[in-house]
Amino acid sequence: MSDEEPKTAIEIAMEKLRASGDFPIKSLTDDQKADIAEIRSRLRAKIAEFEIKQQDKMNKAASHEETQALQKELLHEKKRLEEKMEEEVEQVRERES
Q1: Tens digit of pLDDT for each residue in 58-93?
Q2: Can you say how many angstroms the Cα of residue 54 is from the centroid of all Cα atoms in its chain?
């Protein structure tokens, strides 16, 4: 028996993908990691700021319909910003090191 710890299911699956050649693995540089962290931080802050503003508007809403419209707007904007975040992160990942 070996002194090595057993591999996790994820480690085994990644090894199989690497061996099959179906999953190209590209390591990120430190600059890419920092850029991705900055993108996520910036856009998560925008999402949080928008949520706070929308919540304030919802608290002041005069009707249930107005509150629902504000909630719908919040969900739409949050989804848009999350998609933008993923697009920007993907651009960084695709960038040559």
Answers
A1: 999 999 999 999 999 999 999 999 999 999 999 998
A2: 21
Q: What is the pTM of this model?
A: 0.71
**What is the DSSP track for 30-53?**
HHHHHHHHHHHHHHHHHHHHHHHH
Shortest CA distance to 97 belongs to which of 36, 38, 26? 26
Stretch 37-65: mean pLDDT, rounded?
Answer: 96
Cα–Cα distances (Å) from 24 to 19, 51, 78, 84, 92, in that order, read: 10, 37, 31, 24, 16
What sections of the chain are H helices per DSSP?
9-20, 30-60, 64-94
The answer to whether residue 56 scores a pLDDT higher than 90 is: yes
User: In this structure, are residues 86 and 47 in contact, taking their beta carbons and an 8 Å threshold?
Assistant: no
